[in-house]
Amino acid sequence: MNIAIFTSRAPAGSRLMNRCWSSSFSLSGRMLIRQWLQRLKQLRLDLERFDKRLGGLMSPGHDTGGELVNEWIRTLAGMQEVLAEFQRRDIVIKDLERGLVDFPAIVGGREVFLCWEQDEEDIEFWHDLDTGYAGRERL
Question: Is the pTM of the predicted complex or chain greater than 0.70?
Answer without folding.
Answer: yes
